[in-house]
Amino acid sequence: MQYQFSEVINELKPSFIREILKLTVKPEIISFAGGLPDPSLFPHQSIKEASNAMFDRNDRSIFQYTTTEGHAGLREWIAKRFSDTHNVEVSSDQVMIVSGSQQALDLFGKIYIDPQDAVVMEAPTYLGAIQAFRMYQPKFKEVELQEDGLDTDQFLATMQEEDSKFFYGIPNFQNPTGLTYSTQKRQQVADILQQTGKIMLEDDPYGALLFEEEGQSSPDTRPIYALAPDNVVYMGSFSKVFVPGFRLGWVIAPKPALAKMIIAKQAADLHTNSFVQELLYEYVTTHDLDAHIDLIRQTYATKKACMVQAINTYLGDEVELFPTSGGMFIWVRVPGVAIMDLLTVAIEKNVAFVPGEAFSLTGGYTDHMRLNFTSLEEDQIVEGVKRLKAALDAYRANQ
Amino acid sequence: MQYQFSEVINELKPSFIREILKLTVKPEIISFAGGLPDPSLFPHQSIKEASNAMFDRNDRSIFQYTTTEGHAGLREWIAKRFSDTHNVEVSSDQVMIVSGSQQALDLFGKIYIDPQDAVVMEAPTYLGAIQAFRMYQPKFKEVELQEDGLDTDQFLATMQEEDSKFFYGIPNFQNPTGLTYSTQKRQQVADILQQTGKIMLEDDPYGALLFEEEGQSSPDTRPIYALAPDNVVYMGSFSKVFVPGFRLGWVIAPKPALAKMIIAKQAADLHTNSFVQELLYEYVTTHDLDAHIDLIRQTYATKKACMVQAINTYLGDEVELFPTSGGMFIWVRVPGVAIMDLLTVAIEKNVAFVPGEAFSLTGGYTDHMRLNFTSLEEDQIVEGVKRLKAALDAYRANQ
């Protein structure tokens, strides 16, 4: 039997990096490669309480089909929280619940990309966004991410090009770099969007995970949506501040764009799980989500400090760290080292990371790696960094 | 702000029928238009028990990211149940959990349809499948559905055409007609698939909802997958036999096709909700799903009999009923009546149905309607049919 698959799916090659990373699930490996939240922080008991309260109401509609837009109360809660937090007016009919942020990437790709349209991406950028958009056969253009955000000169020139359809970016604690746009860069990006009449898909899974660190002022994490609401579709997620397994994210969008995304979502999966939408709504209206987020922030801040200290201790002279004060990742440059070769040695030494090339559209970042600090205990973080040092020594001995 | 949406989403017009049906949510309307399971049958107490057992194990992985393919135990359970029920060998690595059957339609469209490929559909066919496939810009071809299944002469000729890419069909208690393929037609379809080397997407949400009726032999509901496993991607669903709100369906596919669907699903939503997968697995391994399905079958059989009797009593001479012995719908022809006009009158009389045109790719079935019998109580069914009669009288008086 010959299967006549579509051109778009046939063009996707199995990822070499993904194949290598499959090796890293062995229990003896300390993996900095993942992007998993710390499972010990999942509010198991609170979810159980919310669940029982929900069951005790004996409301069968929690099991029934629901609307594509999602749970009315949850949409209202999201709109109010976003409006209050970010000092911008959003109504609940601008909110749609999605089956995780990844679905928002897919739906936005579907409503915006015609084949050969150009999607403007940060360099480096999030792997999952590349995967989602590729299904709609765009070209990609890169704009370099600097320590204070996008290279805005390059951004303006790129967005002015006729075929540039939209910009996808992660202004807060970016994946993979951990970098955050400055206040000035946020305003410049908003101005350029308005000036060129183009749209941004703003991905913000990590914005709430801001670490308060001694002697440092907190970065501005206000969404670019708040600066240019007609020009931004904003993506939020409960995966990093609550639990990822529920697959609950949301979008806030200008109404014409939301209307198209609703049509696309209805064709894609009718609606998001109604049971966990009700369960989440029960949780947020009876528990203190902000207190829970504070706990996550403190825990992650401690883990990040531990990783930075371990890197300074064991790898200090050999690497460059990019500054971050939130999120889940540290971006590390190992000047002059072929990072894919280092990964092969590292796996032999029972430690893993994601090589920089995974986040590049053009094969760049060949001496960078992304390290995750959220899913491991502190002793594992230190031991993993020691193994990285051993891997680097072995790599250099082989050169 | 001008939004530059993709060609495919701009081509989708708001549905006139959908707009009309929005009027039918008023509480005074008895709606035969829906496709909702009876919520009183949702196993609320059993799900609560399963949920508490799951929480008590204190396993945080129920909240964590999981694999795109889905819950290993659930996939194993589905493979074994399908193999045992249908006497065909399926392994768990041929099974993927999806976010409801609708997602399987979307993913299959994505991996199979290039623009201008022809998708072969039953006439009439399921509206949601048309919506899902349209996103990938195919042509459509229709093959007439007869009382014993497809017109197989027309099916052979159509599948032999070069541009016919795959066939989408619902062999059991079809939506909208309630019709079921005969044993002979199943074999003919399987033979034609093998002879033409083409693939079928077999949608089977209703197959388990078979009514045993006095004096009638039960129809054959064995999947066509069992007759031609290399040529069929099979879609199953928990929405009609458990609860729809969990958005849990599955596909069974030849391994090359499943591999492509996994890539497409990863880009679309990473994976299906891990929490409800674990909850469903807990339920099916500690409760008797078959006993629950028997209860649904008996309840729906009674409701269907009630509707048929009411139609025979009040509309007997004016309509033709198509035979069905399972599922959720009755397909009714009202010869010579313009069904869209009848719908307008019916809504004034506080009763609603879906007009036949909604299920046609070519504007056909203008004197047919689909009636749902699962979501109403028997007294509502009788009252609704009386209102249909009043609407028909008023319609005729205006001609």
From TrEMBL, chains A, B:
Residues 44-388 form the Aminotransferase class I/classII large domain. One of its GO terms (molecular function) is 2-aminoadipate transaminase activity. Its EC number is 2.6.1.39. InterPro entries: Aminotransferase_I/II_large (IPR004839), Class-I_PLP-dep_aminotransf (IPR050859), PyrdxlP-dep_Trfase (IPR015424), PyrdxlP-dep_Trfase_major (IPR015421), PyrdxlP-dep_Trfase_small (IPR015422). It is an enzyme of class 2 (transferase). Keywords: Aminotransferase, Pyridoxal phosphate, Transferase. Pfam families: Aminotran_1_2. It comes from the Bacteria. GO terms for biological process: alpha-amino acid metabolic process. Its cofactor is pyridoxal 5'-phosphate. The keyword Transferase applies. Homodimer. This is 2-aminoadipate transaminase. It comes from Psychrobacter phenylpyruvicus.
